[in-house]
Amino acid sequence: ARSVVDGYLTAHPEGGWLDPLSTADLLEAYGLPLTTSVWARDEHMASVSAAGLRRLGYEGRVVLKAYWPGQVHKSAAGAVRTGLGDDAEVRSAYREFTRRFGDRLAGAVVQPMAAPGVELLAGVVQDQVFGPLIVLGLGGTAADVLADRVARLAPLSERDLSTMVTELRSAPLLLGDGGAPPVDLAAVRSVLARLSRLADDFPELAQADLNPVIARPDGALCVDARVRLE
Ligand code: ADP
Ligand code: MG
Predict the structure, then answer these.
(1) Domain residues for 91?
(2) What is the CA(40)–ligand 2 centre distance, in A?
(3) Does residue 142 surpass a pLDDT of 80?
(4) What is the ipTM of this complex?
(5) Does any ligand 1 atom lie closer than 6 A to the CB of residue 140?
(6) Three-class SS string for the chain?
(7) Which of the listed residues 97, 112, 127 is the one where a domain comes to its end?
(8) Domain termination residue (choose one: 112, 136, 171)
(9) Would the CB of 82 count as within 6 Å of ligand 1?
(10) What per-residue confidence (pLDDT) applies to 226?
């Protein structure tokens, strides 16, 4: 983790967003549960990677995400294609990226399709006065509209870890009211605890957004993460 952070800040003293692979290296060093991501520079690489990952994907499907440096909202820009079920779909999605993004396109990330669950966001933001805050909220594409979030100063206590979940307005979705089975709350709390440790160890971490973390009865899995260093 230290070498990812120092390496980036040496090359970019003004700070900025890590690329997807460095992001994964940093977060995985803290045990955060990220889905498998394979980098593909062209249509052929995307096709080969997808063939391997389809076996891991929900219903045998994969996801393709276009990447270019400095991107912000991928799905709003048409850069996320989910549920690709065969080679023709993967290839045509990659070609569509090439058409749409042209020379900007640096490549694509291929992931297995994750099983559905409750989409949460978990992250770190810096408060100018108090330092790192750990945030938990309802995630996915409705996150900004619903703005259901709670935040606590790092480092999180055991009490913070349990009350953050229950204070969400969406808590019933997680606790399993209304017939659905409860999600794995220990897995959600573990994500928060690991983010807290990361934020505590690295004051250079200006922002981390894990959105969504897909929470299910059998665990929690992050399929989209970005990290900004300063
Ligand atoms: P962005 O947040 O930049 O728009 P995401 O990578 O979060 O892009 O993708 C947008 C949405 O697509 C996610 O909120 C999620 O619903 C879905 N999605 C993305 N990756 C996967 C995946 N590997 N498995 C299942 N669904 C995914
Ligand atoms: Mg996202």
Answers:
(1) 38-112
(2) 19
(3) no
(4) 0.99
(5) yes
(6) CHHHHHHHHHHCCCCEECCHHHHHHHHHHCCCCECCCEEECCHHHHHHHHHHHHHHCHHHCEEEEEECCCCCCCCCCCCEEEEECCHHHHHHHHHHHHHHHHHHCCEEEEEECCCCCEEEEEEEEEECCCEEEEEEEECHHHHHHHCCEEEEECCCCHHHHHHHHHHCCCHHHHHCHHHCCCCCHHHHHHHHHHHHHHHHHCCCEEEEEEEEEEEECCEEEECCEEEEEC
(7) 112
(8) 112
(9) yes
(10) 96
